[in-house]
Specification:
82 residues; mainly alpha; 4 helices
């Protein structure tokens, strides 16, 4: 995290043990996977790039933005029912 110059807030100081931050390398994995998903990268490619062993694990790390979801719904043709 230091090399990437990413600073998070310390939520638990290291008092003789391990400190806890709200941002970790693991946070980057979530962000990386979600950014690729929101850019339209397939689940299979994201899974390979992140090293996840299954589609289920990869799905857990995927957080879709609202706009791509709305765009997907907008593709559904209307039925013209009133």
């Amino acid at each position: 995290m230091e090399k990437a110059r990413i600073e998070g807030k310390t939520t638990r100081p290291a008092a003789g043990g391990r400190g806890l931050s709200n941002l970790t390398f693991h946070s980057l994995r979530h962000s990386f996977n979600s950014a690729m998903a929101n850019a339209g990268v397939s689940q299979e490619i994201r899974q390979k790039l992140t090293g996840h062993v299954s589609a289920e694990v990869n799905a857990h790390y995927t957080h879709h933005e609202l706009e791509p979801l709305r765009a997907a719904i907008a593709c559904i043709p209307t039925l013209g029912i009133k």
